[in-house]
Hints:
It is a single chain. The chain is elongated, with a radius of gyration of 20 Å. A 4-stranded antiparallel sheet has the order 1-2-3-4, with no helix packed on it. A 3-stranded antiparallel sheet has the order 7-8-9, with no helix packed on it. Helices cover 0% and strands 34% of the residues. By secondary structure, the chain is mainly β. It folds into 2 domains: 5-56, no CATH class; 61-118, no CATH class. The protein has no helices and 9 strands.
Amino acid sequence: MPARRGFRWDQGNSRLEVQVDGTIAARFDDTGSYLTVPAGGITVTAGGITITAGDVQVVAANLRMGASETFGTTQPTSAAVFKEGTAPVGAITTSSGLFASSSVLRKIIANGTASDVG
């Protein structure tokens, strides 16, 4: 099949499909305002994703912060995994945060105090 990129209206199933190189990369259907990504996930290479209403749910998978890599001998399920990165410094206005520092999960509170969790 030749490489194709674009949109295709699947009238029989009442859905709009997004095709990349002949593979269905995403679809919208008429049963709700949802975007379905059949396989491969979503990669954002610039900018970000902003959710202004509703919830962010990770179902039957893990939430990973930082570079994705093998984590432990047995991979976790339903876990929040933090990869070590640059630690925050200074006061943060009316917020708090969690981050990884070496092998320790740390928290920072509004006045800028960082400490180990647990």
